[in-house]
Amino acid sequence: MGDLIPLFPLGSPLFPGVVLPLQIFEPRYRRLVADLVARPEGSGPRSFGVVAIRQGWEVERVAPAEALFDVGCTAVVRAVTPQADGGYRLVTVGGDRFRLLDVVVADDPPYLQAEVEWLGEEEAAEEAAGDADGLTPPPGGLTPVDDALAASVAQGSLDLLVGNVSDLFSRYVTEVAVLRSGGGPIEVDDEEEAELLADLGLDGLDGEGDDAAAETADSAAAALLRQVGDDARGLSYLVASAALLTTDDRQALLAESATRRRLAAESRLLRRELTLLRELGAVPVPLQRFATPMTPN
């Protein structure tokens, strides 16, 4: 038996450390928020699980365990603002990753719940092993000096990955900005598109041409990267959440437990996306725009 947590299916995965604002107006999710708010102080974090929807229709119309991806992330509630209509505005931030063991559907509470197992990060074990890919221990095992050397090699390779992904992400943001601007004003068709532009720091472009767009994007990318500083794990989750990737790509990055492997995958993905942007000359439209709405939320 795993831990039982409230579940909130969404069209895209949430990542640790990433801010997720939500407007709650569907009755079952109003109840979820009310239940969280009613928890006594000291009873643990006010949080619920966010998991991406695998199939493009209402989760309860099919077996929920089949409709959802199996790895999600908790959303920790940082602020709750009740609305006049009985709904809520929430500010949440991604917390811990988990794997779904089972999905519980009941009349009370009316929202989904899930039995989950918690997923740890593999950084410590990975560093201790010296990122063993390509490293063959000498006969008799590693001495303390060998351990220190392996750890140094591992940290060096991680630093190279961080620099590589940071550079690719900056170039990617600039390319998206230039294509969005098209030498004229950026048109935002709906709220979701505005949020995606905001995620990439592109919502403030003034449409004064490619040079202006690139300059604005460079500063936006730098600001985003400053938020994570030298935190390799934070960088990996920033890129996973901000890049205009498919849900499957994002889900694979969320399911990856080792920062080094997550960054290596992002390096490949960003190179792929840069190639597509340059060859097609267009920014991909998020697939969620074409999906049948799953819930009013």
From TrEMBL:
- Domain of life from the UniProt record: Bacteria
- SMART domains in the record: LON (SM00464)
Q: Which residues form the Lon N-terminal domain?
A: 2-274
Q: Which InterPro entries does this chain map to?
A: Lon_prtase_N (IPR003111), Lon_prtase_N_sf (IPR046336), PUA-like_sf (IPR015947)
One Pfam assignment: LON_substr_bdg
State the name under which the record lists this protein. Lon N-terminal domain-containing protein
Organism, scientific name: Klenkia marina
